[in-house]
Specification:
287 residues; alpha/beta; TIM Barrel; 7-stranded mixed beta sheet; two-stranded parallel ribbon; 10 helices
């Protein structure tokens, strides 16, 4: 079996001295080991240094670590929709139009990934109760069409499980019916949004180590190399299930996620970001 978190945000505190960045990386690697993760998509937001985040995890990778980290970015379309783009190597970080927030529309981004054999893409959390979900902008028919083109679908997303636990514990699911429905459809994508023949992905969508643990389980042989792991993850050949991890303190998780979401909102609104790009010449020399 292969345990994979296909949607993780390292959320590095790059605004602090390097000591705190290193400590954060050490905590991430320790959590990878604790949660027995075989692979992780380093899918940081395009406006939060995705390449630097991946590079930092590589820099502080401990000796003997077995978790494979996969280069990815949660791209931000012109409409404000999130879409994860990933590649086998760091190629994705050389693509300026994908890394640049608000550069491409969702239609252009899907087409862009479709035409490049080195890129893969998946539209996360279509039902998210924010502008980052595709269904806040387009119909379910368009979402299904885009998923079919990309050949991947995020069937599971654990970002709102703390909210689900909180609403359920306080018996608020009926009172806040629409919010509860959005959370449920984000956590487990309804069948009507899963076209036949697509490869399922899923992840914690965690921004903090205490939210990690939910992951995709691929029921195939244990890969021996990174190439084997990537091939298994992107292949529709094996059965897939998902492991959920309950939050010990859902209210605290909601508060910390809310603070992070507000900070990210300010970064987008005030354009507090640059283009975190890997020069293509550098990738060519490393290949």
């Amino acid at each position: 079996m292969l345990r994979v978190d296909c949607h993780l945000h390292p959320n590095f505190p790059f605004f602090l001295p390097e000591f705190f960045v290193r400590r954060h990386a050490e905590k991430l690697w320790a959590t990878f080991r604790k949660r027995k993760l075989d692979a992780v998509f380093v899918a940081e937001h395009a406006f939060k240094h995705p390449f630097r985040s991946y590079r930092t995890l590589l820099k502080y990778r401990p000796k003997g670590a077995t978790t494979q980290i996969i280069p990815a970015v949660e791209a931000l379309t012109r409409e404000g929709i999130d879409m994860i783009v990933f590649s086998k190597d760091m190629y994705v970080y050389t693509q300026r139009d994908i890394i640049t927030p608000y550069r491409l529309t969702i239609k252009q981004l899907v087409s862009r990934v479709q035409k490049d054999r080195r890129l893969h893409g998946v539209i996360p959390h279509p039902f998210a109760p924010s502008d980052s979900g595709i269904l806040r902008h387009y119909s379910e028919a368009i979402a299904r069409k885009d998923e079919t083109i990309l050949r991947f679908v995020e069937k599971y997303n654990a970002s709102l499980t703390a909210l689900e636990q909180f609403l359920s514990t306080l018996h608020l699911t009926r009172v806040l019916r629409q919010l509860s429905l959005s959370a449920r459809n984000t956590t487990r994508l309804p069948v009507r949004l899963i076209p036949r023949g697509l490869t399922f992905l899923g992840g914690s969508d965690a921004h903090h180590v205490w939210d990690m643990g939910s992951c995709l389980v691929i029921h195939g042989p244990k890969p021996r190399t990174y190439a084997d792991a990537f091939r298994t993850i992107t292949s529709p050949r094996y059965k897939r299930t998902f492991v959920w991890r309950n939050h010990r303190h859902p209210l605290l998780s909601m508060i910390s996620d809310g603070i992070t979401a507000f900070r990210e909102h300010l970064m987008r609104k005030w354009k507090l970001y640059g283009v975190d790009l890997l020069p293509s010449q550098t990738l060519a020399r490393q290949s």
